[in-house]
């Protein structure tokens, strides 16, 4: 929905004048998802706040959430307030609210994204002790080569690869900074072939426009990215990715692993990793994403991150580690944390308590120095 300033009589088509208020609403719940003022200009006094408490009260009214129980202030900077989802006093890194005000307290923008859980399962204990997870800690301590742009070198560091530990059975779940909302199927298959394909690979046009009809909205149709991937579709995707490799990388039989396939923007993406790398300990891994058309079962195009990795190849190689993994664990143990977090359990269809295994520090593999990873 769009509201135009009262003084605007004529406007250019498809162009919103400064001061226009654009509001997005969840048609099913009626909840306001976002409020944007064009060019950060506002002519209305309906959303003006004199105090922080007034602003929070308005957020509670819009969201039907309770401050302190379901969300808390994460940070404030230059009249921009960022709130994080909480549940039962435990951080849930899956939902955020951002509010931006002008110098007079007038609302310039409101954005709500992610999930704010209202309930969780407490049937499993989440507060595991480090002593109970020593085998997992030893498994997650890795030697990584972190590129330093300032020094143009790769620094060898022992650090923790974050992951969630769920419940007393200590089920492990990977930690993803960027959450993917589509269906994901793990494959982990090395792709091989005996013959190459002589026909040249033809790039297709990929359109990521995500449009649905009003009828689909009314019927609450399942988003295409949430549809399951059948075993037949999985096999067709494996064949499509293999054929593309046979065309574009004919000499690479046995050199690529198809890690997973996932639905994204109406396509299926095949995520591949090379089995060999110039640096197996590199903090950044080479990968290739192949975009598959579901109607033709053909790869439309592929994206290789080698160009992004190219600058790192010019850096001085990391020296051989002197510090052992056991010594690094001893130095890091007091810094390693098991942080309670809520994560969504698809089988139970609800949020459950888990422990995030994390550490802000690493150990220099040559000098043995304890380093704050954010400072490298």
Please, could you describe this protein's structure?
15% of the residues lie in helices and 36% in strands. The chain has a seven-stranded antiparallel β-sheet, with no helix packed on it. It is an alpha+beta fold. The chain has six helices and 21 strands. The model has no long low-confidence stretch (mean pLDDT 84). The chain is globular and about 70 Å long.
Which secondary structure elements does this structure contain, and how are they paired or packed?
Elements: E1 2-3, E2 21-25, E3 32-37, H1 52-63, E4 71-77, E5 80-87, E6 90-101, E7 107-114, E8 120-121, H2 134-140, E9 141-148, E10 153-160, E11 163-166, E12 171-174, E13 184-191, H3 214-218, H4 231-248, E14 256-264, E15 267-274, E16 288-293, E17 298-304, H5 306-313, H6 325-332, E18 337-345, E19 350-358, E20 361-364, E21 370-372
Parallel strand pairs: 8-19
Antiparallel strand pairs: 1-2, 2-3, 3-7, 4-5, 5-6, 6-7, 9-10, 10-20, 11-12, 11-19, 13-14, 14-15, 15-16, 16-17, 18-19, 20-21
List keywords for this structure.
five-stranded mixed sheet, 376 residues, seven-stranded antiparallel sheet, 21 strands, alpha+beta
């Amino acid at each position: 929905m769009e509201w135009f300033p009262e003084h605007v009589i004529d406007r250019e088509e498809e162009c919103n004048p400064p001061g226009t208020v654009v509001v997005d609403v969840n048609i099913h719940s009626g909840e306001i998802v976002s409020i944007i003022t064009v060019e950060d200009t506002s002519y209305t006094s309906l959303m003006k706040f004199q105090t922080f408490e007034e602003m929070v009260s308005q957020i509670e009214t819009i969201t039907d959430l309770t401050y302190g129980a379901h969300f808390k202030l994460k940070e404030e900077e230059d009249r921009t307030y960022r709130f994080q989802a909480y549940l039962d006093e435990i951080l849930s890194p899956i939902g955020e609210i951002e509010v931006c005000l002008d110098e007079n307290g007038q609302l310039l923008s409101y954005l709500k994204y992610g999930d704010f859980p209202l309930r969780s399962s407490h049937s499993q204990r989440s507060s595991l002790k480090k002593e109970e997870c020593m085998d997992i800690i030893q498994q997650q301590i890795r030697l990584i080569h972190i590129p330093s742009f300032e020094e143009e070198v790769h620094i060898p560091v022992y650090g923790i690869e974050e992951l969630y530990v769920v419940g007393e059975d200590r089920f492990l779940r990977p930690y993803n900074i960027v959450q993917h909302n589509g269906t994901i199927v793990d494959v982990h298959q090395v792709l091989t072939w005996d013959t190459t394909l002589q026909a040249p690979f033809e790039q297709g046009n990929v359109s990521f426009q995500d449009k649905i009809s009003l009828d689909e909205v009314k019927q609450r149709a399942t988003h295409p990215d949430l549809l399951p991937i059948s075993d037949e579709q999985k096999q067709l995707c494996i064949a499509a990715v293999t054929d593309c490799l046979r065309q574009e990388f004919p000499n690479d039989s046995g050199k690529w692993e198809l890690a997973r396939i996932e639905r994204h923007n109406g396509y299926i993406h095949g995520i591949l990793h090379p089995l060999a790398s110039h640096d197996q300990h590199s903090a950044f891994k080479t990968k290739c994403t192949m975009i598959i058309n579901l109607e033709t079962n053909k790869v439309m195009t592929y994206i290789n991150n080698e160009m992004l990795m190219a600058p790192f190849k010019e850096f001085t190689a990391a020296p051989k580690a002197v510090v052992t993994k056991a010594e690094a664990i001893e130095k890091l143990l007091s810094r390693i944390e098991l942080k309670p977090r809520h994560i969504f359990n698809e089988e139970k269809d609800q949020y459950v308590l888990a422990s995030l295994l994390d550490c802000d520090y690493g150990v220099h593999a040559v000098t043995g120095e304890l380093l704050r990873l954010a400072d490298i």
